[in-house]
Amino acid sequence: MSSDSASSLSRMPPSQKQALVTSWRQLKPQAFALMRKILVELEIVAPKVKDIFYKAALVDCFVNKEPRKGATVDEHIRLLIQFFDDLINNIDNEQEAIAMVKRVGQHHAILNQSCGFNANIWEQLGEISMEKICCSDPVQKTRESGRAWRTLIAFVTDELRCGFDGEARVFSRKSSVDIPDEDEVERDRQNELLIKLQEMRMEYHSTVPL
Hints:
There is one protein chain. The chain is an all-alpha fold. The chain has one domain (3-207): Globins (Globin-like). Helices cover 78% and strands 0% of the residues. Helix 1 runs antiparallel to helix 10 (143-175), helix 3 (31-45) packs across helix 8 and helix 6 packs across helix 10.
């Protein structure tokens, strides 16, 4: 955990916490469109993300038993909305908020080996999210809302990267034990990605309990 992000969250005054709650409630009707803009821009600046969503869509074509539990763009939009719902509901429970965000980063670490997803993507996601959310009308209504969202997004970005980096190092150490031939590595990566995308077919609350 980054001490800076944790301390900034814990130091958030009650007025900013209330501004978060109020502005998020006002953002909810347009949240789906807003989150789509964030992910579409992320796909542009980080082509690896677009590749992952494309492969997820292919998995949905072949494994369609649970169509609403995939790793596609639309499902990620729904998960992002639920994520902010849960995070803002836990804004006074710092340790739960940290664990919640870090767990999301950890769950994505497998993508580092399988398709080149790297920690810088979290930074790019944070920058895009801050720009889009802080420019929205509900957040721009008050100075406290803008400050609160900047603090929250910086906290989320830091903890996502922290969880991702730690888990990615574990996968890296495991993969360095054996060095198979290149064809075998590529087949294993493709199989691993497909398996992981199928494993991601789960309800949000099964991985991030309140």
